[in-house]
Give the backbone structure.
Amino acid sequence: MTKKTVIIVDDEQAARQQLKEVISGFDELTLVAEAANGKSAIEQIMLKRPDIVFLDIEMPELNGFDVAKATQDLKYQLVFMTAYEQYALKAFDTNAIDYLVKPARPELIAKSIGKIIRQQTQIKPSGSAACLTLSDHAQQKIIEFEHINYIESIGRYRRVHLTQPGAEIHNTETIISEQTLDGFCNQLPESLFYRLHRSYIINAAQLLALKYQARKHFVLLAGADSPIPVSRSFVQTLKARIAERAHTEG
């Protein structure tokens, strides 16, 4: 088994020790370097070319964002760790795959590591995948488009239903978000996702069939327990897209 190499960057020795203890519990990982400041971090990342970097944000002279920018051309999975929640949005403007607020419990660190390992084995190596960043309580989750089954509106919240592979990676079948469906529509490509109804968006790749029953249209999705309603205004557009898809795949 080829192990994934890891570098820890934090100016606090206690934080580095906590990470080392958690990492030691994973046979898939091997720690290749530590750094206590941004300059040393850049040097170690450039030298060791790690698979995963745990990176503190608040450090003397060069902070974590400086380190991420200086090494952005290298391919590694980046996890930011910081005591300051206000950095979350800026963190995900980088290539960060996760964001943990210190002091992070060992089980949360282990969960993040497990997700990274699964993603590295399942994601296709043909470049970075298109994805959404969603808040899930104290964490930010990066969800690939292909791992979204459908999104439904429930009152003032939206529920993002994941496909089976997505649920296995993120250890949850659904994620609750306050983002509006219009907001999701602005981020999701129309060629891959359909807004079927004022309360539903589906992943076109999960579509199994369009049905008509009791004077209403609905669709069946792979992995969905219930049919999804289709608004009358979208029925003809959906039929045209299904026909186009069938022609293309045929």
About this structure: The longest helix spans residues 232-249. Residues 121-128 have pLDDT under 50 and may be disordered. The chain has two domains: 4-122, 142-249.
